[in-house]
Design brief:
Blueprint: H1 3-11, E1 18-20, E2 27-28, E3 42-44, E4 49-50, E5 66-68
Parallel strand pairs: 1-3, 2-4, 3-5
Length: about 70
């Protein structure tokens, strides 16, 4: 399963509060569709190969308390 397919699987669920994709060698840009996960409280994307800027759509994630990118 690739990253966009994973997001499609997760996006329809309303109670996803925690996602960790730590050290998965995911590359490219951080998808703006992550912003659709409005109930997410914790998102861990560190130790991957992301590039570019943080999408503005992540500001829709009003319940997000922790975002780990380093």
């Amino acid at each position: 399963i690739d990253f966009p397919q994973f997001l499609a699987l997760v996006a329809f669920r309303s109670h996803d509060l925690f996602i960790s994709m730590f050290r998965n060698q995911i590359g490219g840009h951080i998808p703006s569709t992550l912003g659709e996960l409005i109930n997410l409280a914790y998102l861990q994307l560190k130790v991957n190969n992301f590039e570019g800027t943080i999408p503005n759509d992540l500001s829709k994630m009003t319940k997000l308390r922790t975002l780990e990118l380093h």
